[in-house]
Amino acid sequence: MITTVLTLLGRRLLAAVPILLVVSALLFCALRVLPVDPAAMSLPPTATIAEVEAKRRDMGLDLPLPQQYLIWLKGALHGDFGSSIQFRRQAGSLVVETLPATIELSVLAMAVATVLGVGGGLLLFHLRNSRTEMIADLGSLLLLSIPEFLWGLILLFVFGVLLQALPFTGRLAPGLSQPHITGFLLLDAVIAGRFDIFWSAWQHLILPAAALGLAFSPAIMRVLRSSLFDVYHEDYIEQARLRGLSEGRILLGHALKNAALPTLTLAGVQFGFLFSGTLLVEVIYSYPGMGNLMVDAVRNADLPLIQTVGLTYCIVVLLINTVVDSLYVLLNPKLRVR
Amino acid sequence: MRAISRSLRSPRVMIALGMILCIGCAAVFAPSIAPHDPSEQNLVSLLLPPAWASGGDPAFPLGTDSLGRCVLSRLIYGARTAMTVAVFASLGAMLIGSVLAHISGYFGGLLDWIIGRAVDVWMSFPPVILSLILMVGLGTGLDKVILAIILVDWTRFCRVLRSEVLIVTRRDYVAAARLLGFTHWQTLIREVLPATFPLLITLVSLEMAIAVVVEAILSFVGLGVRPDQPAWGQMIADARQYVYQSPSNLLFPMLAIFITVAAFNLLGDGLRRTLDVRLADIGR
Fold first, then answer.
1. What pLDDT digit, counting tens, does each position of B157-212 carry?
2. In chain A, which residues have their Cβ closer than 8 Å to the Cβ of B258?
3. Which of residues 193-212 of B touch A (CB under 8 A)?
4. B137 touches chain A (CB under 8 A)
5. Which residues contact B164 (CB under 8 A, 6 or more apart)?
């Protein structure tokens, strides 16, 4: 069974390659037709026109666009994504430095979203046909109206400013420095055996992760509730009831397992959205991840960096969707027969 | 049409339309409601608290920001920006998306394949990233924000509507219309479009909510409307820097965004229920 899933995963990954090529080509063209001259930008303002022209030739900007793309692609396949204009460093290494922070945040946020989503979905379902159903339903709709951007600000306002309970800038308290092992701060702190760093990093992560999790949980809640409704029409629920099982056991032992599948698909799709949603939360909390790098690059029209970071986001989201697709097959026996 | 007048009487839709009407009025009549010019700076009264708090000035009901500008006036003018973006961006995205969806679903074949692949590629860009990249190219400004949202979000309409068009096209009355000698154009306008219309307006109201959020996000990051134009996202970005001195400045634009987005979502939800639109979670 594992091999089936692995072949499937491999096939899906292969299918993602052409999409990735088209995406990278589009990104490349879109950024090259902009009225920004990377050659002029990477030189001091006192440079003469001749110097700019020489730089242009040096950077290959005088070549036709398809040829430029091929040169870039060749470099990219060798791990060279060009260098950032503002930082004067390899764009690839900047991404490698910031990606773990963003992954850490998004994984924790996904955990929050799943716990809240499943808990909330069960609660919503439990409240069905009761007087509070209407209120709970409206409540979940209102929750759906609060995007991660607003959650970030609300939590910052309540826990950071009003209660002053948690820090809301950066990844660590000012006095501490990060041990560089894997880039995943929580993990590094454990490896280095520094409990103070772990605690500080944890405190800094809570608000951004909660903000993202809160924003993405209502969708999971609502899907879980509606698939529970569907499952409760099945005969085996009535059967379980006739066998004398308690309602709680029917819900958790029988219905939840079968309702989990559509919920998982949605959760996977949500994880893709959530990953790109980290960008805003990072900006709000000045969290040094890829989102802040992207915004920095965009504000300074740092084309090579925009291209690399943008492409990284696309790759990660594509990867998440592909893995979720294959996971779905692993969990759904009906799809495995083919 | 009867379905629409029925849905107008549902409480959700009525409440939502009432809220939207209020925000819309604030937007339209901003110059006569706002107590101050939104960009007028009062450098002697910086970061004032709201009028009811101690140290507040009744001339500035909701206080002032870091440049001494009246928060209430900026909120009211910000509604103008938000509503303009909501209306034009969602209508634009609807127009492109639904035209392509109808062509794709009705004619099928190669056209359908091309449009389908275009949507696939488009949607593999995360929306936030795509809109940021577009804003680099387009530059800042209200019209650019609208254009960027249209260019990002037409796929939402296209994907959802296409499957609806596919279903409708297979109905007997559409075949009957063709047999009666209707041209493709007539069939699309007179037979298919009325059937997809409920879904269309539901999607538009949900898209308006998204557009308000995206505008706020872009302005927050500093890539939205021009700096001299008041926008809620900008107010938040400004208040974020002075959050300890004046926390209320952060609260008001957040509330404004929340109320507006909730109103549009409530409208969408009400329409979906009363018009009996089959709509799975369409994601964000």
1. 998 899 889 888 888 998 899 899 899 999 998 989 988 998 999 999 999 999 99
2. 145-146, 150
3. 209
4. yes
5. B101, B105, B195, B196, B199
